[in-house]
Amino acid sequence: MAHIQTLPTRDLCESAKNGGCGECQTIANQKCENQ
Amino acid sequence: MLHQYRLHGRNIVLDTASGSVHAVDDLAYDVIAQFAAHSREEIVSLLSDRYPPEEIRECCAEVAQLRDAGKLFAEDPFAPIAGELKARTAGVVKALCLHVAHTCNLNCSYCFASQGRYHGERALMSLDTGKRALDFLVAHSGTRRHLEVDFFGGEPLMNFDVVKGLVAYARGLEQSTGKQFRFTLTTNGMNIDDDVIDFCNRECYNVVLSLDGRKEIHDFARVDYQGRGSFDRVVPRFQRLVEKRGGRNYYMRGTFTHRNPDFLKDIQTMLDLGFTELSMEPVVCAPDDPSALTAGDLEIVKQQYEDLALLMDERRREGRPFTFYHYMIDLSGGPCIYKRVSGCGSGTEYLAVTPTGDLYPCHQFVGEKAFRLGSLDEGLTRPDIQEKFACTNVYTRDECRECWARLYCAGGCAANAWHATGDINGVYQAGCELFRKRMECAIWLEAVRLTDAPAQ
Asked: pLDDT value at position B384?
């Protein structure tokens, strides 16, 4: 049986390659507009 | 770095560096707690009085698999590149807080803006100054397409004609520049009428409506210059605005103080009044102020946050959901690492403009002369101050580097840090405690929502 359920989350390492567009609103509950 | 916690019967494990969130059973919770310091057989020995050895071994294999996949015990690769991450989003201005009115028709006892005057004289922004601020924003926005303008005060509706004129001017700029403006407006509600409602619902991406909850709580602090409470005057106006807005893209913004650390009662009042997009925030004031939260209050507040999460889950299951500003976390569609390292952008990509055109790092620094960054006439004249804001991130503070919540928080509020410690790179400990509790509750709500069968 599985003891651990991993929830879907954003891959932060991947976002280091392609993030940083700066178009999101001026933190934890933000939505990325350019994912 | 891991953070493990139990809340309302759920076990949750957060992996800070990868951002992974795991809902686990009791066995996995105990195995993960021992995994970094012990071998598999040592863990079997430690836990075999509570769980069957084969199950422990099976669980250890599961944990090892997640570790190898970088979703548990992940190393933090971002510290060495934090400055570079922040630099990539610095150098442009994409948002302005326009202080269109340094005056107010209320005299709230806890107002950080000194009844809207920000330690100065009463003043209204002229249409010309506002237009120059919008031109400044466009000129400094680089390749950013989405620009934001907050109408703030004081009470911005005391200068409503200028607000309307500035939106009309910005719509013209959109046509000529290809930029897209988003407007928000924060109001105490006293001057809301049908004209304001139609304008807000046509032009404002969001409206922030100041209401403290229970009538006796609201009316204790939010009084006019004759000392009369404002609850009965503002609530019907807010209800009409929200109804005509379709119940979306607003939020009620309350302040809780030493007088009402039991703020869940105020949340309940807002729900009873028909509002469903809610926020209650701790007061910002000097520690010796009578409204300041005490250490005892903080414990009450943390329990209230936990009870609030239960209430939200209960109402979601009943088909009567409501939102709470700090619990609207988006695990899969949230911000990239650049944003998580660099924070709100105050002093760099976000600035406040006073009625006379002076520039400050954000609305909470307005009036603090040491933080004046220049003006619309002079331009930005204090790159040294801006550099300090640009160089502040979650890895420049020892406390943040050791905090599991750092990539949810992005280092917190520079103004709060400065008020608490005299340094924007300081740490406002009480704020950190409350933030961590809010994150635990917000993630718990998501874990429950994502792992439960749909409510029948």
From this structure: 94
